[in-house]
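Could someone model flavin mononucleotide with this protein?
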Amino acid sequence: MKILYAYFSRTGNNAILAKEICKSLDCTLERIEADADLLSMFTMMRLAIGALLGIMPRIKEPKENPSEYDLLIIGTPAWAGEFPSPAKAYLRKKKGNVKRYAIASLSGSGNNPKMLGQIRQVMGAEPAAVMEIGMPKTEKPSMDAVIGADYLQNECGREIEEFITKIRGGEKRPGQGAPAERRAGPKSNARDKAVRKG
Ligand SMILES: Cc1cc2nc3c(=O)[nH]c(=O)nc-3n(C[C@H](O)[C@H](O)[C@H](O)COP(=O)(O)O)c2cc1C
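Reply:
Sure, complex below.
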């Protein structure tokens, strides 16, 4: 199975998660890049206002075409409980070329149902697998906190393993009925979701 893992990451955490998952799953990695400096407060304010007005930000042209892959993993944090607009811009651009997709999210809380709903809405289909992981709990949570790969290996191994197993499960049943995203109803998706509260 050919897998494209397209991830959006402002501070690098979802990049670390993507690389960790790709140690076990053979994926092509593609970083979704906003055409602006995301560490600038001005950019973040502009994106927030744009999101409120439904204006999509510009992103750098992705190199990979999802139509050449069997599965797209979309990796993303949550911003204000929502799907960050640069990642949304990517999916809107590419969704017509996606056969099946899965969601891997590393966010502050690891519990952002609105964001998951927004991704489903953009894609118009159910994901083959969903994994939400939260940041480590600290006394002073910061939106700029950065994890190490050891956190994922030591504290999130079960969630990552379940996610990989689910994706590999799809691989073992080629050609059997409808793709997993169409088979999975809302109930099975809730069951699939591995939430780690950070
Ligand atoms: C503007 C902003 C808003 C955020 N809002 C949320 C939120 O609503 N829920 C949440 O769980 N995490 C939230 N976070 C935390 C990020 O999801 C978290 O820091 C994540 O690890 C960032 O991933 P990245 O390093 O890949 O960009 C927010 C972060 C930023 C910068």
